Structure formats: C-alpha cells, structure tokens
Amino acid sequence: MLILGINEGFEASVVLCRDGKILFAVQEERLTREKGAIGFPSQAVLHCVKHFGLNARNLNHVCLSNLRSPKAETRDELLREYARRGRSGRELLREADLSGSLARLAGMFPGSVENRIREWQAARRGEVNNRTVAEQLARCGLDGVPVSRFHHHSNHAASAYYGLRQNGHEPHLVFTLDGGGDDACAHVYLAENGALRLLAATPTGHSLGNIYAAVTHMLGMRPHEHEYKVMGLAPYADPEQADLQAKVFARYLDLDPADPLRFRRAIPERTSAMLPRLLRDFRVVRFDLVAAGLQRFTEELVLRWIAGAVENTGVRKVLAAGGVFMNVKANQRIASLPGLEYFDVFPSCGDETLPFGAVWQCHVRQGGALTDIRFDGLYLGPEAGTDLSEARARYGEVVEFHELDDPELRTAELLAQGHIVARCSGRMEFGARALGNRSILADPSNQSVVQTINRLIKQRDFWMPFAPAVLGERACEYVHVPASLPQPRISPHMMHAFHTTERRAELAAAVHPADQTARVQMVWKELNPSFHRLIEAFGRLTGRWVLLNTSFNLHGSPIVGGACDAIEVLLKSGLDDLVVDRWLIRKRGSRETGVHASAPSSGGLQDQRQD
Asked: Where is the Carbamoyltransferase domain (predicted)?
C-alpha cells in the first residue's frame, strides 16, 4: 500500500510510505528555498509525483495532517500578527474586520462567544479548504485519490509511538505538546498493542508553546522559528534570578487541579493573546533573565506533568512529540526522572513530522501490520549529486572540481589540518537539524572555529553553541548518558542534551560555555556508514572521535539540498572547502589551505572560551 502524507501548515512537508516503511520525506522549504514554508507543499508533492511516478492508479491514499487546513499565511504575515497582539485590546477592536480578525479576537471574548465564533469559522473554513486541497492535488495529477484527515495531535503521538516504541505490546505513555493544532495544545495517550487511547486533552488557549513563542517575539526574535535561541540564551543568567522570573510565568499556566494530565491557565486571556501582559510584567527585566525564567518554568511544568502521569498510571516507558519537545534541555531533565525505564522523542518533532504519524495511522487503519512499520532514521530526502552536471555547467567558470578516491578520508585529513569543510553527501536529512549529510564540519577542540564560522559563514547569534557529532561507540567517553535513553542506538538525531565528561576540552567549541552541556548527535554505522567512517578516520588521525557539526546554510536560509545550493553557499560565504559526494569543490584562485581557524591554545577549557 502506497500512502502520501501531507502537512499543509507550518513547516510544510510530505512523506511517502509503502507498507509501513518510509521511502521519502522532504520539506517544502528545501525545494522552494523559502525558510519555514507554510501552506500546501506543491513542490514537494510534485517532486514525489515525478520521481516515484505517482498517479491515481498506484497511490492508494493521501493523508492530511490536520482535521482542518491551517490558515494560509507567510512568515511576514505571522510576524505582523504578533506585532498586533502586542497592542491593547482596544486597538485590536478598532482595526478588526469580520473576515480577517475574528479568530484573533476570539481569544479576548468569554468562552461561550469564543466557541461560537470558532465553530462558525471552522465550518466555513473546512468546506473551503477541502475544496482547495482537492484542487491542489488535481493540479499535481492526483485527482481521484482517496483523502483522509487525521487529528494534529494524534499524528504527533503516532509518529512517536509507531516510530520509537520499544516493544509493540508493552504499554507506553505518549505526550504531545505544542502551540496548538486542531483545537488542542497537549494530549496524553496510553499506547498498547498498536493502539493509541487518549487519556487527556488540553484545549488551545492553555498552551505552553504559545507562551514560549510570545516571549520569543518579545525578545526580538522570530516566533515558531527562534525558540531554540531563547533556550540557548537561558543558561547565561544567574540561577537565583531565573527562579524569581520563573515564578512570574508560573502565575500564567499550571496543571489543572481537576485533572493534572491537562494544563489550565490562571489568567483570563488565552495564551495566544497574552503579549500585552508579558510586556507589562517583564518591562524592566533584563533579556537573559526573561529567557532563563521561561526555560526554568517550562522544564519544571513539563517535568511535573510527565512525572505525575507516570506515577498515576504506573507506565514507565515514555515517548514524546510536538514542538515543545524540540527543547533539548527539557528533554535532558525528563530523561533523568527517577524510575523512568525508557524515554525518547521523535526526531525533529515539530509540525514538519506530522505526516509520519498520518501515514502510519492510515497504514494501521487500512489493516497494515504493526510489525511492518519501520523507522530507520531521517536520511530520507533527495541524493546530493543528482544536479552535479547542472552545477558544472552553471558554476564551472568560478569553481574547480577535484575528484576524490576516498572522500571520507580526505575530508577527515582536511579537518585534522584545521580546515572548516562543508559536506553535501548522500541523501538529505529531513527536519530541523543537520545530521552530517548537509553539514559544516570542524575540529571542535579548537575554540577559535566558533568565531571563524560565525564571522565567515553562518552569521549566527554570538551566544548560541554549536553541536558535536560523536562516534556512537565512543560517546560515553564525552557525555554522561541517562539509563532511560534507548539502547543501543542512543541519540542519533540531536534530540537530547547531555552533561559532558572530563574530556570536554576535546569538543570545547561544541559545548555550551555557560553550563558545559552538549546537544550531541551520536553517529552509528548502521544509520550513516559514510559519516561514521569520516569521524572514525578523523579519530585515527587526531585521537579525538568527535566533530563540530552545524547545518550547511547561511543564517536565515534553508539547509542546502544539492550541489547547486551547496555551491551558492560556498560562493556567498568565506568557505573554501566543499565536498559533494566524491568531489572536492573550491573557488577558482582560492588559497590552497582553505578556511581554517588558528591552532587551539595549550591552556585548559577556561582559556578557550569566548568572551
């Protein structure tokens, strides 16, 4: 059975599944080059139609990842919406009109009025959107294919359960948590014998994700995109001051006393309409203290939520998905909860992975076997070198192509010599985090590479740490691993943070300088043999079995797709060394040594930190 899953909301994406196995997955942004594309992923669907020969005769089902299509809007429109939310309710009412602002104003009205507005809008939107989706599919050559819709949060839960379950017959608790989707912002499920049973649902308006997004906007960053920057800023603040600010956030949202598996706000306005309150309550609080207070509040609330459910049900295997669980520092604390037997988070668990849950739910609903569902990682996109001929024709006058006999060994040699190397190899990884195939790599023992990468290539915010990619079998030499994480393939997708060991100087440039934690990708041979071989070769040359790994893109742009995208970044940045499959590509006339940082100092870790 061939099933196409589509997310037509934030982080638009598609997933193609045959008999429970994921064949292909790609985000719309990688094809349109529009960061965080929102709406129907036309280019991604057309890519599947073209490369897999999809049509109404061989495609059994199309699955949509929301019961109602989300509002079509651009990133700029989203930012303007947050700016409007920062004004007073009186100003909003003055500028409102029924066609465009009822949903935004609904959060300011009493519950009965709010519900009527939303019911009217949902009915009207559902009719229009179903017709629009049918038209979009027809334009892609897929008219006549049966279409099903699945609940937003059931898709998050299904991705985690079907993709990560430790044993298909043992019970698991599955938690979903995000800004909101299909009138919910959090679900708790008991999953057993292939079935998901909903235990509790928190309606929108009581959303921890909304609060985090609103603070992200208040701090001058992009909501639904830069929350990770707020998390990265938090450890720099004084812990005692962070606790004081966390108490302010705790006045907004807590567990529901009547049902602690749900959240309930303690303020009159919905969490999506609380920007004015935040601006008032934190108007004289320093930015790092706001970030730290928010992070502390988030961790404590989620910990109490999960710990309470584990205690009440006695189920000690826990899985999670939804945008809030992209917060690796919260995941780190969950993994260390006493008594937890098993914990994992579906990789890149924002809305981009909703179609994974949709196609697996459809597979089970159509009679497919649970044992057929296989998840072998996120290397699911197009191959790197398919546009190499086009790249030669387009860029041959400005770059040189050198064929390599052993690209992994040559890359390791360049890295050991201090070079910073961009790598575009094999199938593109799906999701928010580069996992070695579309990565910029460096020697993390050299702290000066942080400044070099930020200045010449990434233009990242100065406080943000990089991440290490560690040879899986050597990982415990560098980080402390909680016993609850899945064995033997621990953390292959950068969804967990870890405390580092005394060998942290070997990955100093990829450790958070304020708390010495690291968001580690553990690289396992069976998941990515070529990247594993590269790190292994680097280890043999240096005695260090770890690399700095950051996404191969310019700041604010999507991760590169193929050779043409990769060369564009090469030409627009200070990079000199690019490896695309078997080819080393350099700018014509560039110095042979390539971009590299100065040698690390002989001092300890304290001497190597940035100011």
From this structure: 3-358
- The 3-state DSSP class for residue 532 equals helix
Residue 86 confidence (pLDDT): 66
Beta strands per DSSP E along 218-365 = 253-256, 259-265, 317-321, 342-345
Mention every residue, 6+ apart, whose C-beta is less than 8 A from residue 578. 421, 422, 423, 424, 566, 567, 570, 584, 585, 586
Q: Which two tokens stand for residue 332?
A: 């780190």
Closest CA to 434 of 553, 555, 529, 537: 553
Reference 569, options 459, 432, 493, 466; nearest CA is 459
The half-sphere exposure of 21 on its side-chain side, counting CA atoms within 13 A, is 5
* Cα–Cα distance measured from residue 438 to residue 239, given in angstroms and rounded to the nearest whole number: 36
Q: Which of 452, 526, 551 is nearest to 228 (CA)?
A: 551
The list of the chain residues with pLDDT below 50 reads 89-117, 119-120, 123-127, 593-594, 599-611
What CA–CA distance (Å, rounded) separates 19 from 508? 44
- Map out the domains of the chain with their CATH numbers: 156-349 (3.30.420.40), 381-608 (3.90.870.20)
Summarize pLDDT for 494-507 with one digit per residue, the tens: 999 999 999 999 99
Q: What is the dihedral sign for C-alpha 201, 161, 63, 178? A: positive
- The pTM is what? 0.90
DSSP 217-239: HHTTS-TTTSHHHHHHHGGGS-H
Token pair for 230: 């707020």
pLDDT number for residue 77: 78
Q: How far is CA 183 from the centre of its chain?
A: 22
How far apart are alpha carbons 349 and 431 in whole angstroms?
Answer: 8
Cα 136 from Cα 128, distance rounded (Å) = 12
Query: What is the model's pLDDT at position 74?
Result: 74
pLDDT of residue 96: 40
Instruction: State how far the Cα of 404 lies from the Cα of 393, in Å rounded to an integer.
Output: 20
CA-based angle 219:222:227, to the nearest 5?
A: 75
Q: In 3D, which of 74, 86, 16 has the Cα closest to residue 49?
A: 16
**Integer angstrom CA distances of residue 518 from 110, 121, 261, 489, 543:** 45, 45, 30, 18, 20
List, in order, residues 6 or more apart from 374 with CB less than 8 Å away: 20, 21, 22
DSSP per position, 260-271: EEEEEESSSS-G
Report the pLDDT value the prediction gives residue 87, as an integer from 0 to 100.
63
Helix (H) or strand (E) holding 422: strand 421-424
The residue type of 346 is: F
Phi, psi of 50 (to 5 degrees): -70, -50
